[in-house]
């Protein structure tokens, strides 16, 4: 059976914008539960400035506190060498650098231009490689920017190609504010795959306008097989006002299983994990599948 690799964003993208501090033991509990559901790639922490994103300040404690499961990759965001060194000390299995297709977003998110971000990443990639770590590269605002509006597919392709040539193993394409639609997603992917092999591309779609599943279906039809998602649809970006979370992992798994695509994820367990974390955060569950799960007897 054809499979899709899911990269779980809940503990990082999902929690980074929570207004109240989420206790470290809850973050650890979330990562462990997600691994128990069968998710094999979990972005567990972020080593960014605690002044910029205070919620992620305990990333080291999270990474060192989890009971690791064999075969699971626990990754972390590392915007610079300073972040990478802490991530290495905490035992991250994989790290990720992040930039954007739009200058304004890059400046607000990581306080530098796109060109400067790529310069910053060069030593990060070098050290990560020396330590045998895979590196992911994120491109934000691939289907729209909160400050610049529409983004040309060629601009996304340029930045994705630059990250790939710098040595990133995989490029994740972020619809940060969820304004994309399937036609735009296909046009963007068609441009990017001229620069980066399709097998190295991931879709990282937020669901602000309710388009994420449609956009995912469109890129799946183009052959893309790596998807980022967040349990219970947790999340939002601190530098994209009003943007909601990533598409909910439960909804993506329901879609993929319905298409006959394997994920290795136990959906029933995932639904319970989504409910558990929503309860812990006092949040409404952002997964439609999570909300509907007990109402029907026929499940894929
Ligand atoms: C990138 C920086 C650090 C530049 O921040 P800066 O202020 O330009 O950096 P700096 O090098 O001038 O350092 C200033 C201070 O920050 C400290 N610092 C510097 N680096 C680190 C570090 N790694 N860890 C801890 N502390 C750090 C450094 O030590 C210093 O401390 P001071 O001497 O003033 O006390 C900052 O802008 C930052 O942390 N930004 C946060 C960005 C962020 O986390 N955004 C959300 C994640 S990205 C995202 O969600 C999008 C994505 C990936 O999901 C895809 C999508 O959906 O589009």
UniProtKB/TrEMBL annotation:
One of its GO terms (biological process) is L-leucine catabolic process. It is an enzyme of class 4 (lyase). It catalyses: (3S)-3-hydroxy-3-methylglutaryl-CoA = acetoacetate + acetyl-CoA. This is hydroxymethylglutaryl-CoA lyase. The keyword Oxidoreductase does not apply. The keyword Nucleotide-binding does not apply. InterPro entries: Aldolase_TIM, HMG_CoA_lyase_AS, HMGL, PYR_CT. It comes from Oceanimonas pelagia.
């Amino acid at each position: 059976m054809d499979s899709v690799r899911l990269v779980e964003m809940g503990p990082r993208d999902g929690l980074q914008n929570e207004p109240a501090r989420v206790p470290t033991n809850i973050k650890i509990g979330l990562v462990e539960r997600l691994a128990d559901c069968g998710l094999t790639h979990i972005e567990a922490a972020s080593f960014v400035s605690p002044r910029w994103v205070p919620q992620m300040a305990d990333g080291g404690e999270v990474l060192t506190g989890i009971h690791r499961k064999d075969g699971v990759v626990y990754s972390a965001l590392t915007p610079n060498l300073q972040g990478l060194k802490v991530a290495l000390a905490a035992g991250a299995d994989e790290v990720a650098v992040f930039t954007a297709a739009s200058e304004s977003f890059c400046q607000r998110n990581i306080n530098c231009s796109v060109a400067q971000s790529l310069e910053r990443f060069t030593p990060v990639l070098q050290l990560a490689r020396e330590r045998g770590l895979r590196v992911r590269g994120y491109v934000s605002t691939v289907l729209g920017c909160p400050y610049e509006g529409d983004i040309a597919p060629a601009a996304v392709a340029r930045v994705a190609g630059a990250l790939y040539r710098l040595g990133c193993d995989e490029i994740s394409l972020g619809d940060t504010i969820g304004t994309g639609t399937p036609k735009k997603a296909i046009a963007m992917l068609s441009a990017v795959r001229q620069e980066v092999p399709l097998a190295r591309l991931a879709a990282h779609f937020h669901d602000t306008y309710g388009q994420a599943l449609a956009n995912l279906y469109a890129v799946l039809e183009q052959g893309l097989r790596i998807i980022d998602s967040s349990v219970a649809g947790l999340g939002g970006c601190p530098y994209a006002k009003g943007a909601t979370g990533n598409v909910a992992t439960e909804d993506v798994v329901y879609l993929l299983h319905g298409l006959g695509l394997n994920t290795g994820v136990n959906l029933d367990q995932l639904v319970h994990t989504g409910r558990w974390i929503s309860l812990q955060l006092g949040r409404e569950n952002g997964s439609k599948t999570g909300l509907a799960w007990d109402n029907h007897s026929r499940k894929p």
